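Side project, low priority. Logging it here so it doesn't get lost.
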Amino acid sequence: MNNAPTGMGMGMMDGMGGMMMWGMGLVWLLVIVLLVLGIAALFKYLFGGKR
């Protein structure tokens, strides 16, 4: 009797864990993209030369 709710709970946690992993992956991807763009802008600003 105790196994059924535990199994259902684990299934729910697996689904949420998968979604959270995708969300965290997306957040890290955005952070990396923003860092790369920021570094590129900094280099362009520092070494772009005078116009």
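Brief comment: The radius of gyration is 22 Å.
Revisit when time allows.
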